[in-house]
Amino acid sequence: MDSKKKIAIIMLGAPGSGKGTQGKLLEDKTGFKRYVMSDLIKKELTPGTLLYKQVFKEGILLNDSHVFEIFRKYFKSESDIILDGIPRTLDQAYWLYGFLKNHYYTIKLIFLNVDETQLISRITSRYYCPKCHRLYNSQLKELMPKIEGVCDDDGEILIQRDDDTSQIFNERLEIFNTVKEIILNVYKAEILEVNGDEDIETVSKEIIRKIILYK
Ligand SMILES: [Zn+2]
Predict the structure, then answer these.
(1) How far is the C-alpha of 55 from the C-alpha of 53, rounded, in Å?
(2) 151 has a pLDDT exceeding 80
């Protein structure tokens, strides 16, 4: 094992696949430095501006050159890293690849593969109480309300987050699938596929087991 060898782990997974949770767990277990692109962008944009609204309310992607500029500003090349939320376009995929290679990184892409039908059913069954914010899930026994559609604690009518309604979620999934093909194609030699349908700890162990071979 060469302790000077640096590794960059790119996390890729559909919305709702647990990518963020797994990235955080990986950070906790390995001490690798994690960059969550949406957090960095949030730090850089001013709330209340049109651009902020477009990016964080309307889901419009920040242009590539702006993304590169922000990433470069926060990036420190001395440690092992985990990347979440970058790349998200073809140009970002190529740019990042070259950038990491120039900084002598071994690149590995963790692709959290999940069953889409299960994913859609899990996400679109999430509800919450607008009054006490308790979370419910109409598919999971332990999170089902006693009376369908009504909060156990205060009787409020349960609602869904916009992102969790099937129409919006399906749109996000479709966008992800297009981007996924592009990214997997650029990084095809570096892909480590992990079955994301298992429980959180099993998936986490599998990720560690796969990357340890390169560290
Ligand atoms: Zn409630």
Answers:
(1) 6
(2) yes
The protein residues having their C-beta less than 5 angstroms from ligand 1 (an ion) are: 129, 131-132, 134, 151, 153-154, 156
Q: Is the pTM of this model over 0.85?
A: yes
**3-state SS assignment for residue 34:** strand
Going from the Cα of 157 to the center of ligand 1, the distance in angstroms, rounded, reads 8
Residue 9 φ then ψ, to 5°: -105, 120
Please report the DSSP string for 54-82 in residue order: HHHTS-PPPPHHHHHHHHHHH--TTS-EE
Radius of gyration for the chain, computed over Cα atoms and rounded to the nearest angstrom: 19
- What's the chain's average pLDDT? 93
Q: Which domains does the chain have, with CATH numbers?
A: 6-123+174-214 (3.40.50.300), 125-159 (no CATH)
pLDDT surpassing 90 at residue 130: yes
